[in-house]
Design a protein that fits this description.
This protein is of the alpha/beta class and about 350 residues long. About 40% of the residues lie in helices and about 15% in strands.
């Protein structure tokens, strides 16, 4: 009998062999692509087990994509999910400047869209991607693909920040890093053992159209795995701990429900449902229940939030976007039009990255 670590790679190899033997249609293309994802997710799960074992054993050195370090710094993996150019790459470059040992970048770009390569720190950071469609489970798959690649790539990736091409940073890198890691973490072991390190994801149970979202595939389609009382909604963008990232990557049961087609587009936004529901069911105490990405839903249209124009960019806007209803401050904001880059760069050093 084939042992479990080799089962998925074996199935993947077999599927590719069949491509050259059997006739196939479009749905079979999806089947083979899904097998690729399963192999990727399986590898990521094994990677967590190995890194956890090393941390439990008290290892003082870690191997990262930059080499071996005796006292490694934990990293934030920035996951860019996009179907258009990364127009704000110059602003993000300024954000990352001087922090090369504390972050990694991964980009999932819709392969059916022609993108202008951003270059700089983004060069070579694209992961194998598949087509994404709004209001479909393809966005869930893309996020899971990014998480898996980042987990496999570097064991020092301890936080995973999912952002869009329309997101901008509204604080300095140092401000964000200090907030997430509390200025005290020194190893994978200490990170895993401290309950104060949470995932920052919006989890809501009191939305006005919550039932309509739950019943989008049919009134009983989510049963028995997800009851209405367990169903949650939230922002598409989040920051997850490594343990939660792997929880998402290895999960299968809920995914089989959320990948079901909806009966209509409205109000079907599975990317806003799957992650909050899963984490609420598995580890609600390990989540903040709020997002660190500010979005302005005033005057929204067709499910899209307000799009900031160049004329709206100002120091006052940045200061306003940082403010929340609690003690925390937002780290990112969306959506900004590509034309907003010039005025944003003009206030980057004196306002955006001055906390």
């Amino acid at each position: 009998m084939v042992s479990s670590p080799f089962l998925l790679p074996f199935a993947l190899l077999l599927s590719f062999s069949l491509l050259f033997i059997l006739p196939f249609n479009q749905s079979q293309f999806s089947f083979f692509a899904d097998l690729q994802d399963l192999a990727l997710f399986h590898t990521a799960t094994l990677q967590l087990q190995n890194s956890h074992a090393a941390a439990t054993a008290g290892a003082v050195s870690s191997i990262s994509r930059l080499g071996i370090s005796s006292n490694p710094k934990p990293k934030i993996a920035f996951l860019f999910l996009t179907n258009s150019d990364l127009s704000f790459a110059p602003l993000w470059e300024r954000f990352f400047l001087g922090h090369e040992l504390r972050y990694n970048i991964y980009i999932h770009a819709d392969p059916t869209v022609q993108l202008t390569p951003p270059g700089g720190v983004f060069d070579g950071r694209f992961v194998p991607a598949r087509k994404t469609l709004r209001a479909s489970p393809t966005l869930i798959s893309a996020a899971r693909r990014l998480l898996a690649r980042a987990v496999i790539d570097d064991p020092l990736n301890l936080y995973f920040a999912l952002v869009s091409q329309h997101c901008i940073p509204i604080h300095s890198f140092d401000f964000m890093y200090s907030f997430l890691f509390k200025n005290s973490i020194t190893s994978l072991r200490s990170f895993s053992s401290k309950s104060s390190y949470k995932s920052y994801i919006e989890i809501l149970s009191d939305e006005p159209n919550l039932y309509e979202r739950y019943a989008a595939r049919g009134p009983t389609a989510m049963l028995p795995e997800v009851s209405f009382e367990q169903f949650r909604v939230g922002s598409q963008f989040f920051i997850l701990t490594r343990n939660h990232a792997v929880l998402v990557v290895k999960e299968r049961t809920l995914w089989k429900k959320f990948e079901l087609p909806c009966l209509g587009e409205e109000p079907c936004y599975p990317e806003e449902h799957y992650f909050p529901t899963l984490l609420s069911m598995e580890d609600p105490e390990g989540c903040s229940h709020y997002t660190l990405t500010r979005v302005n839903w005033t005057g929204c249209w067709d499910g899209h939030p307000h799009l900031y124009s160049p004329e709206e960019v100002s120091p006052d806007l940045i200061h306003m976007l940082r403010m929340s209803n609690s003690s925390y401050s937002y780290f990112f904001a969306r959506k900004f039009s590509p034309e907003s880059l010039t005025p944003l760069m003009q206030i980057a050093d004196d306002v955006i990255f001055r906390d």
